[in-house]
Every structure is written in C-alpha cells, then in structure tokens.
Design brief:
With about 350 residues, this protein is an alpha+beta fold. It folds into two domains: about 240 residues, 3-Layer(aba) Sandwich (Aminopeptidase); about 90 residues, Elongation Factor Tu (Ef-tu), domain 3. The protein contains eight helices and 18 strands. The strands form three sheets. Strands 1, 2, 3, 12, 13, 14, 15, 16 and 17 form a nine-stranded mixed sheet that branches. Strands 5-4-9-6-7-8 form a six-stranded antiparallel sheet, with no helix packed on it. Strands 10-11-18 form a three-stranded antiparallel sheet. A hairpin with a 5-residue loop joins strand 4 and strand 5. Helix 4 packs across helix 8. The protein is globular and about 65 Å long.
Length: about 350
C-alpha cells in the first residue's frame, strides 16, 4: 500500500485537472473490473459483482487534491495564481510548487520577503494569496512564455512522499490519495466469489470545490448504501483549539457527523460492529469542519444510507500532510471487512434494529 500511495502522490491531480490520476486508476482497475467507465465529468466508476445476491454499495474516494492555477503573468516574470480548493494563506509563503504545462512540469516557489526586511514591515501581517506570486526563475513575461507556461495551467505542491519514524509518512495530496489507495487495494484484494451484492468503486473528481463528482455519480447509480473513504483532520497537537478527540495511530475514523453529513446510524453501527469483530481499532469522528463525498451521496435519488471511513491526518491541505501508516492499513482492512459482511439492503434501512 505504501508504494501505491507514493506512486499516486507523484501523479498531479488538482481540482478539474484529475486526468492523469483517472488514466492511471482506469488502467489499474480495468483488468479486475466487471465494468470500468468514465462519465462526462470525469469520475471513474468501477463495478465489481459479488457471487451472491445482496445490497449495492457505492464506495467513493476523490482523486483531486487542493492546488492552484495560473491567473496572470506579470511583466517581470512573476506569476499570480488562484486557489483550487481550500488553503490557509498563512502557510503559503516560501513553499516549493510545480507548474504543470503542456510541455511538462516546471519547478517554482511561492515568494516571500527576506527576514532582513521585517523592520520595515508588519511581522504580524498575513498576506492574502492574491498578494502573493510564484517565481519560476524567469526574467520577464517573454521568458515565462518560452518555458511554456500559460494562464490556466494547474499548480501543485512539490513535496514527495516520505516516510518518517517507525510508522508515519508525509507528503502532499494525501487528501485523498490515501482514500484512492485504500479503495484500489480493497478491490484488488477482496475475493468477490464470497461477496454478497455489488460494489461500485467511484474515483470521483472535483470534491475539493464542492463535492461535484460525487453529486454526478449519485445520480447515475442505484445504491442501497454508500461509503466515502477520505482523510480527516486530527486534534492531537498543542494548538489551543485541539481537543484530542482524534489522534494519529488510534485507527481509522468512523464518521458520526460533519458539516455535510449526519451519518446513517445503521451504517455507522455496522462499521463499528465489523471493526470489533475483526479486531480493527477505530475512532468515532465528530468534526463539523469537514465534508466528504458522502455529503452528496446520501442525498442522491431517494436517499442512500451513508457514512465515511476516515484516514486520520495532521496538517490537512498543506504540503506536508502526515499520516500514521497503521491507520492507513486498518482503513483498508475495515473497508474490506464491511464489504465481506454485507448481506441484505434491509440491514441499512432507517429503522433497522431501532
């Protein structure tokens, strides 16, 4: 799994520019899928049929990562940019980035002032991204053009996948390349001759700009239950607002609620029951400051009972998102166990066991 995650981190996929990610995943899934197709917005939908009758399950992981886009090229060769997805302006300064052009990938850096100028600046000032710029080493706009950079080119963080300590890793785009890796490996490892029902693996697009791919996917698929596999922000560091309700290394999160979803009680209880039966550690997740594909899927058609398996992460939407690899592994094992233990659609109904 770690090698797959490293491979996915190396593939650019900012919001609206998921083409390389979708192509890679299509080629990887095609040999094992009963059906593999890409819809009009760009979602990859992989169908795997179990040998026995049972419920239809959507499992969605989004392929897009937060990034930027070239907005304007200044006469002196510096580049103005717009955000793709949510960013914290405080962490942008001096970060290395990659500009993805039709001619290839080019390195750059988000500029900052020298610390020697602090005496003539306000050190408490947080400059908005619209005041910032990317330096790609060009002397003027003509040189930028010769490099092949154009308005509309996407930009990603430059940080590669790196492992650190005994069980942890950091890199950019873990949100949600972790979820994509979990879904890929679960579909590859499961023995569908023992599965009840059908699984639709959705590798969605444009999640970070409004759950758009999931909305389109939910309109196409007739499902009895849905899961998103995504990352979630932990609260185990020293900042004042951190309450230690989610930690690295304590297992995947099982969603209770976020701003986009109050999880189906039946689906959440099924995830908890399966986790206990299989000896998988887990954490209940109540975090209003996040949304996932399940936020759209649960409102599709006549409504789909939904929850989320969350890979805990530090420093979300930064260039150094950090996970515990054990949580990553157990997220995959929980998804596999949930699929193996499905039997009927009735077990996910609103009043089931109430």
């Amino acid at each position: 799994m770690n090698k797959l995650l490293a491979d996915l981190v190396a593939i650019p996929g900012p919001c609206g520019f998921e083409h390389q990610m979708i192509r890679y995943l299509y080629n990887r899934m095609l040999p094992i899928a009963d059906e593999c197709r890409i819809d009009g917005i760009g979602n990859l939908i992989v169908t795997k049929k179990g040998a026995y009758d049972g419920p239809s399950l959507i499992v969605s992981a989004h392929t897009d990562e937060v990034g930027f886009i070239v907005k304007k090229i200044e006469p002196n060769g510096l580049i103005r940019f717009e955000k793709l997805g949510g960013h914290d302006d405080r962490i942008l300064l001096s970060e290395p980035v990659i500009v993805h052009t039709e001619q290839g990938a080019l390195p750059g850096v988000i500029g900052t002032i020298s610390c020697h100028m602090l005496k003539i600046d306000n050190p408490e000032l947080v400059r908005k991204f619209s005041e910032l710029y990317i330096d790609v080493g060009a002397a003027d706009a003509d040189e930028v053009a010769q490099m092949g950079i154009r308005v509309g080119d996407p930009i990603t963080w430059a940080t590669p996948y790196r492992e650190m300590g005994a069980n942890r890793a950091y890199g950019h785009g873990f949100d949600d390349k972790c979820g994509c890796a979990v879904l890929v490996k679960a579909l590859e490892e499961l023995d569908f001759s023992k599965v009840h029902g059908t699984v639709y693996g959705v590798f969605s697009v444009q999640e970070e700009v409004g759950l758009r791919g999931a909305k389109v996917a939910g309109q196409q698929l007739d499902a009895d239950v849905a899961l998103a596999v995504d990352t979630t922000a932990v609260s185990d560091t020293f900042e004042a607002m951190m309450d230690d309700t989610l930690e690295l290394g304590r297992g995947p999160g099982v969603k209770v609620m976020d701003f986009s979803l109050t999880a189906s009680l039946a689906v959440r209880k099924k995830l908890e029951s399966v986790a206990r039966s299989y000896g998988i550690p887990y954490q209940l997740e109540v975090f209003a400051g996040i949304g996932t594909d399940a936020g759209e899927l649960h409102m599709a058609k006549s409504g789909i009972p939904s929850s989320v398996i969350s890979v805990p992460s530090r420093y979300a939407h930064s260039s150094v998102e950090t996970i515990d690899l054990r949580d990553f592994y157990y997220s995959k094992e929980l998804l596999k166990a949930f699929i193996m233990e499905m039997r009927t659609k009735e077990e996910f109904s609103f009043l089931y066991n109430m």
